[in-house]
Design a protein that fits this description.
Oligomer: single chain
Distance between the termini: 47 Å
Strand order of the largest sheet: 4-3-5-6-7-8-9-14-13
CATH topology of the largest domain: Rossmann fold
Structural class: alpha/beta
CATH class of the largest domain: Alpha Beta
Number of helices: 11
Shape: globular
Bound molecules: 5'-O-[hydroxy(phenylacetyl)phosphoryl]adenosine
Mean pLDDT: 94
Radius of gyration: 22 Å
Number of domains: 2
Largest sheet: 9 strands, mixed
Low-confidence stretches: none
Number of strands: 20
CATH architecture of the largest domain: 3-Layer(aba) Sandwich
Length: 411
């Protein structure tokens, strides 16, 4: 910690200014409790430093950049030296190992290759453990399914929303996902997903669906992942020093309390990051896992503090809506949340029917709609109008799902 604090202070003017404003120097950080004095790094710092202002090394030493969407329309740009790529690859190899993937596996990587960190991150990690990598990237679902079948893919990596889409797409190709495919593990992340979604994916393919968490600012994927116990995500504590804070006051919370997840990267060369406010909400547990790993665990990330919708003063997380919908047998897993404002804020949920329900002539849809509205009301404490949609009418995605359309901002 002392080493990285010194390094960041000496090399990054934006960080030095923050220390000055807080009235501290690296010498003020003597014991672990002093970490709380270190100023946070925020998403806004990425906007201020765009594109290369957070670089701590001579640009000649940077061998790759990635980027993700930022708060101001400009992307957040992240940079890597050769050593950073090596560390990231090692963490990704650990992720595969933790999930139970070995050199015998055939890994079909359906994350986007490019500025997004998912594609190359999962690619190099799989090569490092010696698996056979199929760099399929996103798109062309029919071809993806053909490759899975012909190559005998045993591991898939993609967003959970794409995996949900694959559940129906594989069947539409006339295949039985359990008999005709050999997929045994799925590595899913880049967006929040529910236990119900996990169950659906696992049951359809007969695979273990593993939750993987990361973000571009922290290398990319490979910050944390589940083991087969599926009981929290192991954060690689030797690379990432983690805290949870009260998002309003910035106070460090005690163990086990849910708060904003804050991360310090202990070894980053091109872009040292101290106390990064991720905006993700997490709960940290330090007990040893059944699998024997002693790394701290975060319980599944339910959402971001800035994903929260405020509807007429009531806080609503999209994950709560998903949770309700996924428990209703008659509904498919495709939904969209629309928020409008017409004198009052209004919440509208569109959800597709399962094909067998939609095909039934005399099915009482009015009754089903009332039941969904009622279930939503009991969980959200506000009324949401529900629209039951025909199968295949809502948009399908290959990358991260956009479940919320907030039309209030445009009015
Ligand atoms: O999504 C990196 C990644 C790629 C992670 C592939 C996992 C798999 P960004 O595009 O920068 O990076 O988005 C990071 O996505 O702050 C979370 O809000 C969200 N997120 C990522 N993984 C999970 C997860 C990649 N497992 C942002 N559960 C993060 C919930 C997740 N949210």
């Amino acid at each position: 910690m002392k080493k990285i604090v010194n390094y960041a202070y000496r090399r990054v003017p934006i960080i030095r200014q923050k220390f000055k404003a807080a009235g501290i120097t690296p010498d003020s950080i003597r014991k672990i409790e002093d970490v709380a004095k270190i100023p946070f790094t925020t998403k806004e710092d990425f906007a201020q430093g765009y594109p290369f202002g957070l670089m701590a090394v001579n640009p000649e030493r940077v061998v790759r950049i990635h980027a993700s969407s930022g708060t101001t329309g400009k992307p957040k740009v992240v940079y890597y030296t050769r050593k950073d790529l090596e560390t990231w690859t090692r963490l990704m190899a650990r992720l595969y190992d933790c999930a139970g993937v070995t050199s015998k596996d055939i890994v079909q990587n359906m994350y986007g290759y490019g500025l997004f960190t998912g594609g190359l991150g999962f690619h190099y990690g799989a090569e490092r453990i010696g698996a056979m990598v199929v760099p399929a990237a996103t798109g062309n679902t029919k071809r993806q399914i053909m490759l899975m079948k012909d190559f005998g893919t045993t591991v898939i990596a993609c967003t959970p929303s794409y995996a949900l889409y694959l559940c129906e797409a594989v069947k539409a190709e006339g295949l039985d996902p359990r008999k005709d495919l050999r997929i045994r593990i799925g590595l899913f992340g880049a967006e929040p997903w529910s236990e119900e979604a996990r169950k659906k994916i696992q049951d359809t393919f007969g695979m273990l669906a593993i939750d993987c968490y990361g973000m571009s600012e922290l290398y990319g994927p490979g910050v944390a992942c589940e083991c087969p116990e599926q009981n929290g995500l192991h954060v690689w504590g030797d690379e990432f020093y983690i805290e949870t804070i009260d998002p309003d006051t910035g106070e460090v919370l005690e163990e086990g309390k849910e708060g904003e997840f804050v991360v310090t990267m202990l070894n980053r060369e091109a872009m040292p990051i101290l106390r990064y406010r991720t905006r993700d909400l997490a709960r940290v547990v330090w007990e040893e896992c059944e699998c024997g790993r002693q790394h701290p665990r975060i319980m599944r990330i339910k959402g971001r503090s800035d994903d929260m919708l405020i509807i007429g003063g009531v806080n609503v997380f999209p994950s709560q809506v998903e949770h309700v919908l996924m428990q209703i047998q008659e509904l498919a897993e495709f939904y969209q949340i629309l928020v409008t404002h017409d004198k009052l804020d209004r919440l509208h949920v569109q959800v597709e029917l399962k094909p067998d329900i939609a095909a039934k002539k005399d099915y009482d849809l009015a009754k089903l709609k009332a039941r969904v509205e009622n279930d939503l009301l009991s969980v959200l404490s506000i009324h949401a109008s529900v629209e039951l949609m025909q199968p295949g009418t809502l948009p399908r995605v290959e990358g991260k799902a956009k479940h919320v359309v907030d039309l209030r901002k445009k009015e």
